[in-house]
Specification:
Helix 1 (about 20-30) packs across helix 5 (about 120-130). The chain contains 12 helices and 10 strands. It is elongated. The strands form 2 sheets. Strands 2-1-3-5-4 form a 5-stranded parallel sheet, sandwiched between helices. A 5-stranded parallel sheet has the order 8-7-6-9-10, sandwiched between helices. The mean pLDDT is about 95. The protein has helices at about 20-30, 50-60, 75-80, 95-105, 120-130, 135-145, 165-180, 190-195, 205-215, 230-235, 250-255, 275-285; strands at about 10-15, 35, 65-70, 90, 110-115, 155-160, 180-190, 220-225, 240-245, 265-270. The chain folds into 2 domains: about 10-135, 3-Layer(aba) Sandwich (Ribose 5-phosphate Isomerase B, Chain: A), CATH 3.40.1400; about 145-285, 3-Layer(aba) Sandwich (Rossmann fold). The longest helix is centred in the N-terminal third of the chain and has 13 residues, at about 20-30.
């Protein structure tokens, strides 16, 4: 649960959750989390849980923080109110398994707790479990994105060689297009491809690959780049989202391709049994 990156977490409650919120804040600070406490700070007078859920949810929507915790008597009111905010995935967790699965399967970004439901130590353990569990993006990202809010003004970028198109490429492009309004595909030039894949590649030249991709209805624009990685081009385009196909995590892609923190990274799972290299080897052995 230790936060080595100093990530920000938002805390909010109603009057019933003030005491538990203070305990959670102390625990998080000890684990190097940067806590922003939205209040309240006293158990009296009574306050409306909706107001704190809306404030925290709006800040999450604006990407002011990566995680949030909301507390009321049962957690139910907070979860209902927070999930009214577009883009928020608030999970009500009264036990460890719900907390764990809400992260692994649903990529929940707000945890809702009931101060009346569990003892204080149980709620603290739920928080530790929730923060310690990772999203299993390779298995669940496509499902989660079906309930996400996608803005038509967002530019999405996908990149690769795209030599000998197959079903895996099509699913990648379909997924990328579903995340925004405009999909720009960046393809490695012939020179770049040879550096990465060897002198026998690409099979199809850069202009042919570009023309084929432009004929696919998911693709709005194709740009050829000569570097090994699209880092400079992504910096110039400033898309809202970058999509990569593979078995990496989104954070591994971010570090490898030096993608700035303000750009969202999504990884599309590979379609099993499909690979350009395997297809080419099969044709050559023919």
């Amino acid at each position: 649960m230790t936060n080595s990156d100093g990530e920000i977490i938002l805390l909010g409650a109603d009057h019933n959750g003030v005491q538990l919120k203070a305990k959670i804040k102390d625990m998080l600070r000890d684990a190097a989390w940067r806590c922003v406490d939205l209040g309240p700070f006293e158990s009296k007078p009574s306050v409306d849980y909706v107001d704190y859920a809306k404030q925290l949810g709006t800040m999450m929507q604006n990407r002011d923080a990566g995680r949030g915790i909301l507390i009321c008597g049962t957690g139910v009111g907070m979860s209902i109110a927070a999930n009214k905010i577009a883009g928020v995935r608030a999970a009500l967790a009264h036990n460890l398994e719900s907390a764990r699965k809400s992260r692994e399967h649903n990529d929940s970004d707000v945890l809702c707790l009931g101060a009346w439901i569990n003892h204080e130590e149980t709620n603290l353990e739920i928080v530790r479990t929730w923060l310690g569990e990772k999203f299993a993006e390779h298995r669940h990202v496509q499902r989660v994105e079906k309930i996400a809010v996608h803005r038509q003004e967002d530019i999405v970028v996908a990149n690769g060689v795209f030599d000998i198109l197959h079903l895996g490429h099509i699913e990648l492009l379909r997924f990328a297009k579903s995340l925004g309004g405009r999909l720009v595909v960046l393809i490695n030039s012939d020179r770049s491809t040879k550096r990465l894949k060897g002198d026998s590649r690409p099979i199809s030249g850069e202009n042919d690959r570009k023309a084929v991709l432009e004929s696919i209805r998911f693709v709005d624009e194709v740009v050829i780049f000569d570097e090994d990685k699209p880092t400079k081009l992504i910096e110039a385009l400033q898309p809202q989202i970058v999509v990569k196909g593979g078995e990496w995590t989104s954070e591994e892609v971010r570090r490898r391709d030096q993608i700035p923190d303000h750009i969202i990274v999504k990884v599309c799972p590979l379609v099993q049994g499909y690979s350009s290299s395997t297809t080419i080897d099969h044709i050559r052995s023919g």
